[in-house]
Structures are given as structure tokens and as C-alpha cells.
Amino acid sequence: MRVLGIDPGLTRCGVGVVDVRRDRSASLVHVGVIRSPVDAPVAERLATIARGIRAVITEHAPEVVAVERVFAQQNLSTVMGTAQASGVALMLAAEAGLETATHTPSEVKAAITGYGSADKLQVQTMVARVLRLDALPKPADAADALALALCHAWRGAPAPASAGGALTPAQRAWAEAEKRGRRAPAR
After folding, report:
1. Is 59 annotated as a binding-site member?
2. What stretches of the chain adopt beta strand conformation (E)?
3. What is the pTM of this model?
4. 124 and 144 Cβ atoms separated by less than 8 Å
5. Spatial distance between the Cα atoms of 21 and 41, rounded to a whole number of angstroms
6. CA 102/CA 90 separation, integer angstroms
7. Under a CB-based contact definition with an 8 Å cutoff, are residues 72 and 79 in contact?
8. Catalytic residue among 141, 144, 176, 178
9. What do you get for the CA distance between the two ends of the chain, in Å?
């Protein structure tokens, strides 16, 4: 399954595409951040984000789009920009005939790290392990987009029947790192 994860934001919108196989193993297809100038009018900023998302959809042909569910924040202007970017992402996916889903940050963190209150570094570390990347995906918006894509694929995929099938991919990656003597990120 090819999943496009989108971490919506008006200034930085993270996008990440992963291929997830039946055994829940995953590989990186694309990762990036769509940036819009903070001094541009909101409509132009949203158009910039829309062009970037549309280009990713066209180039990488995902089967489903997972978007971070907007949650209340203390900064009203931040939550408004995030909600607007989220709406653009969902609309573009619908126009392309793609299935969409939203996931809360705590759902994504729990799926990736096993801990719903994990910090950004823990999420980046586990995304890098699961996707077998040489470096942590940066910035955090890009890592969050990849985490969203992985979360969606894993939550929708049945557990494999193999002996290790009871573990989530994040738990398997953690256990494999421990076997190799690498220390797992602290909670």
C-alpha cells in the first residue's frame, strides 16, 4: 500500500510517501516540506501548499492520504492555519479520488513509538529505524508526515500470521535495535 502522510501547516507542510507491504515492512518513497512565505496573503500561501501537495499526488500516486487531525492549541492563529492547510490536503485527496483518513498526534506517536506522549526526537528515531534511513528525517514536519503514513498503513493492515506478527513494526524495530546493542530512545 502506498500512503501519503501530510503534517499540515501554513508555513511548513510536511509530506511523506511510504510503501508498506503485507508484512508491515515499509520503505521510503518521498519526503519533503512544502514552505509558504510568512509575509504572503493567506490565499497565496494555501495555493502554494496546494501546488506542492498536488505535485506529490501526481508524481507518487498514493492509494490513500493520511492527514494529522487538527487539535486545539493555545495559539488561535496557528490552529487556524493548520486547519486551513488540512482542509486543502483533504480536498485535493478527494478531488484525486483517494481515500482519506485523519489521525491525532497521540495516535501517531503510539503507533510509531509505542508511547502516545513521545517527543519529536523519539518519533524521528523510530521513523528512521522503521524505514532503515541513515539519518533522522528532518525537519520534524517531514518526520511527522512519514509517521502519519506509517501509522495509517499499520492501523489498517492485519497483523501477519508469522511468529513475530503480534509485534507492531515499531516494536519489532525497537527489539531489533536492542539485539544489535543500540540503545532505544528514552520515553
Report:
1. no
2. 2-7, 12-20, 26-35, 64-68, 99-103
3. 0.83
4. no
5. 41
6. 9
7. yes
8. 141
9. 30
68 in catalytic set = yes
144 is in an annotated binding site: no
CB 48 within 8 A of CB 34: yes
141 in catalytic set? yes
Sorted by where each starts, the structural domains of the chain and their CATH numbers stand as 2-179 (3.30.420.10)
d(CA 184, CA 187): 9
Task: Identify whether the C-beta of residue 68 lies closer than 8 Å to the C-beta of residue 103.
Answer: yes
Return all residues near 15 (Cβ < 8 A) that are at least 6 apart.
4, 5, 6, 7, 30, 31, 32, 33, 34, 52, 53, 56, 142, 145
Q: Report pLDDT digits (tens) over 30-60.
A: 999 999 999 999 999 999 999 999 999 999 9
For 2-22, the pLDDT digits (tens) are 999 999 999 999 999 999 999
Q: 141-179: b or e for each residue (b if 16 or more CB lie within 10 Å)?
A: bbbbbbbbbbbbbbeeeeeeeeeeeebbbbebbbeebee
134 is in an annotated binding site: no
Residue 87 grid coordinates: 482542509
Burial of 125 (C-beta count, 10 Å sphere; 0-12/13-18/19+): buried
